[in-house]
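Hi C.,

You asked whether I'd gotten around to modeling the 261-residue construct. I have! Everything is below, sequence then structure, no commentary in between.
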Amino acid sequence: DLTFHDTRSLLAFIAPGAYIADSTRLNVSVGKSGSLEGRLTSSRLASGTNYLKNVSLLFDNLGKSLNATIVSDEFRAGTFSIYKPAFTAYAKSNELSLSAHFDNESATGGNGDLYLNGEIYRDSCNVLVVKAHPLNSSITTGRDKWTFGESDIVLRGKDFYIDKFSMTNGNQSILADGGISKDRSDTLILDVNNVDLSLVDQFMPKKYGVKGRLGGKAYLTSEVGKAIGMLMNFNADSLSVGGVDAGSVRLSSELADNGRE
């Protein structure tokens, strides 16, 4: 058993910006067969402005797998907060599974359920493959409900592939599909349709009062022996930042490289 008291001086030296609340407690037990079980409880764990409040972490290696569960009263990252979050993780052999749930009904409203499976392995060519498989999930905030479709995201060596990762909310949508590769021609497409830019404020260190609607497409192209090319064209309608109107803004760019420049 380990109980933390005033760790500010130690953390300032080994992990500046980190904070562990007084009376945080860690309990770990190891069985004769090698089984491991542990529990961490704390009124606050923080790094900079990000924190978990009244957090409990349970972990073990029972069932020949690694298992962990985290529950908390509040998780905050910048200006983004979720209440009553619960995270679970499972890993066995090359497979892993992650899930997250939160319920903001008693605070700002909304809830969410996110699920993801994955694999880490080496293929027949001995190339390291990291594969994420997001499952059907959703996040509700007030009147808005974002749904996430089932898809695959794969990193194989230096190649990267996405199979139709999508987020939709009514007539708003974000779609990523395709890939980039050093061994063959491929194209990665990002398609954004009518997205409410006020969503950006939820994930910024502080709120900037961003408003407007964004739509457009971006393409990343790859060819054997050539550098990655890019073409994008986005339009922000009725854009305003901090109460200052910017009207309609168009952002376009093209990058082409034949590999010799």
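If it helps when you're writing up: The mean pLDDT is 88.

Thanks,
B.
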